[in-house]
Amino acid sequence: SLPHGEVSQSYQVAPFNAFVKFDNSTPPTTIYNSTITKFNSFTGTALQQGISAVTLVDFDNYNNSNYAMYGIEYWSDMANRDDGYITWYSQGEKAWTVTSASIGPDSVSQISQRLITEEPMANMAPTIQPKQYMILNLGMSPSFEAQDFAHLVFPSKMYIDYVRVYQRSDVKEGVTCNPSHHPTADYINAHINAYTNPNLTTWSSAGYSYPRNSQYDGC
C-alpha cells in the first residue's frame, strides 16, 4: 500500500526541557482525535526543541482533486501569560492544542517557564520598516521525512486556493513583527551592520558589544 501522507504541526522553543520532552499530558496538551493525530517522534536536537504532532491527510487531497482547510489559532497575552495557547486545525477540524503549561518550568534542566510567543510574525527584511511574512512552500527534506521517490512525479505542484489571516477585534498590532511592546525595528536599526552584512560573523566585528543576559551577566 502507498504511504499515508501526514501534516506536521510544530512549535519551536528554547531553552529546552530535559531530554527535549515537553509536558504532553492532559490537560496541558490536548489531542482531539488520537486515531489520526499523534505526537511527533522527533522532539528536538542539541540545537532546538520541537513541540510537535502529526495528523494523517486524506488521499483525496492530492493531485488537485480536492482541497482541505488547515489553520492555526494563536493566542498570547502579556497581562496573563498562563492563558497562552496554540491550536492547530487539519482538514477543518481541531487537531491538537499546546498551552503555556505544556512548556512550563523544568527542575531537571533548571529552566523556567517558556512563553507562547508574543510576537508571532516573522521578520524577514531587516530594514527601517520590517515586513512580516507567511511562507507557503513545497519542500522536501530527509531530515523531516523519507521521500517516496518511487511514486513521486516531477515536476510537482502544491495547490493553494486561499489564505486568510484574522485578528481578534480587541487586539491591536497582532499581525505585525514590530509591535510597540516588542520594538523589533528599533533593535535591528541600532545594530544594522550585524543584520545586513553577511561577512560580519561576530558582534565585535560588526562594531557592537556582545548582548548581555540578566541571569548570566547580572545586568
UniProtKB/TrEMBL annotation:
<dbReference type="InterPro" id="IPR013320">
    <property type="entry name" value="ConA-like_dom_sf"/>
</dbReference>
<keyword id="KW-0472">Membrane</keyword>
<dbReference type="GO" id="GO:0015926">
    <property type="term" value="F:glucosidase activity"/>
</dbReference>
<dbReference type="InterPro" id="IPR005629">
    <property type="entry name" value="Skn1/Kre6/Sbg1"/>
</dbReference>
<keyword id="KW-0961">Cell wall biogenesis/degradation</keyword>
<dbReference type="GO" id="GO:0031505">
    <property type="term" value="P:fungal-type cell wall organization"/>
</dbReference>
<keyword id="KW-0325">Glycoprotein</keyword>
<dbReference type="GO" id="GO:0005789">
    <property type="term" value="C:endoplasmic reticulum membrane"/>
</dbReference>
<protein>
    <recommendedName>
        <fullName>GH16 domain-containing protein</fullName>
    </recommendedName>
</protein>
<dbReference type="GO" id="GO:0005886">
    <property type="term" value="C:plasma membrane"/>
</dbReference>
<dbReference type="Pfam" id="PF03935">
    <property type="entry name" value="SKN1_KRE6_Sbg1"/>
</dbReference>
<dbReference type="GO" id="GO:0006078">
    <property type="term" value="P:(1-&gt;6)-beta-D-glucan biosynthetic process"/>
</dbReference>
